[in-house]
């Protein structure tokens, strides 16, 4: 599942797709039917990318993407408006090692609501894009070649810098000599 560029914005219902970034924040588009757009200012809005969200676990935190995968394979998903006991029972099935004291029923409702928004989208069924191993090796080699230039250009640069320093001192006004003390 590819949830990159899908964010939740605090204070705004639903999920948003980050379209582009500008100087002050991001231009977001809602994932609902209205496709409303808004500018989220980074200094005032708190955004969380879905592929980075975790849920409190008893031992380790559980990634939201893992929970979505388990919900996808589940036979029946309850409605997000169901009572808290039904939601908690379902969440025990899909995330058995979650911390029940720190994961509230409102969190479970939000996760199920997000799942219902995303389940029919094509990006929910496609694989997350990860860089290929061959590409990273080529990039590292290119970076190493740029970092270690040949000896000839390195010797030429200091000579030019020295000439520039001499030229600057010739243009500087000459200091007046202080009168001799008697």
TrEMBL record:
<feature type="region of interest" description="Disordered">
    <location>
        <begin position="145"/>
        <end position="182"/>
    </location>
</feature>
<dbReference type="Pfam" id="PF21186">
    <property type="entry name" value="DUF6852"/>
</dbReference>
<dbReference type="InterPro" id="IPR049282">
    <property type="entry name" value="BVU_3817_N_sf"/>
</dbReference>
<feature type="domain" description="DUF5606">
    <location>
        <begin position="3"/>
        <end position="50"/>
    </location>
</feature>
<feature type="domain" description="DUF6852">
    <location>
        <begin position="53"/>
        <end position="118"/>
    </location>
</feature>
<protein>
    <submittedName>
        <fullName>DUF5606 domain-containing protein</fullName>
    </submittedName>
</protein>
<dbReference type="InterPro" id="IPR041218">
    <property type="entry name" value="DUF5606"/>
</dbReference>
<dbReference type="Pfam" id="PF18347">
    <property type="entry name" value="DUF5606"/>
</dbReference>
<feature type="compositionally biased region" description="Low complexity">
    <location>
        <begin position="145"/>
        <end position="161"/>
    </location>
</feature>
<dbReference type="InterPro" id="IPR049280">
    <property type="entry name" value="DUF6852"/>
</dbReference>
<dbReference type="InterPro" id="IPR049281">
    <property type="entry name" value="BVU_3817-like_C_sf"/>
</dbReference>
<feature type="compositionally biased region" description="Basic and acidic residues">
    <location>
        <begin position="162"/>
        <end position="173"/>
    </location>
</feature>
